[in-house]
């Protein structure tokens, strides 16, 4: 599972809420989840909001 999805679940957010936090459509968020598209740099605020490592979010690495 992609790090972005693990963090979403760990923080109790729905896919729709995560997409809204990223200021993206649900379809675009799905592309992030599946590694088809990288999270835009302007969405780094999401990392701060979730208290996660921005490098992991941007690299779509699995959380450990």
In short:
This protein is mainly alpha-helical. It is 56% helix and 0% strand.
Structural features:
434 Repressor (Amino-terminal Domain); globular; 56% helix; mainly alpha
Strand percentage lies at under 5%
Give the ordered list of helices and strands.
Answer: HHHHH
Helical stretch tally: 5
- The CATH class is identified as Mainly Alpha
Radius of gyration from CA coordinates: 10 Å
Shape: globular
Poorly predicted regions? none
Secondary structure category? mainly alpha
CATH architecture type: Orthogonal Bundle
N-end to C-end Cα span? 11 Å
- How many strands? 0
Largest sheet: number of strands, sense, barrel closure: none
CATH superfamily heading: lambda repressor-like DNA-binding domains
> How many individual domains?
1
Instruction: Kindly identify the CATH topology.
Output: 434 Repressor (Amino-terminal Domain)
Kindly report the average pLDDT value: 78
Helical proportion, percent range: 55-70%
Plain-language structure description:
The protein is an all-alpha fold and 64 residues long. It has one domain (3-59): 434 Repressor (Amino-terminal Domain) (Orthogonal Bundle), CATH 1.10.260.40. Helix content is 56%, strand content 0%. It is built from five helices and no strands. The protein has helices spanning 3-10, 15-21, 26-33, 44-50, 54-59. α2 (15-21) crosses α3. The longest helix is centred in the N-terminal third of the chain and has 8 residues, at 3-10. The chain is globular, with a radius of gyration of 10 Å. It starts with a helix and ends in a 5-residue tail after the last helix. The model has no long low-confidence stretch (mean pLDDT 78).
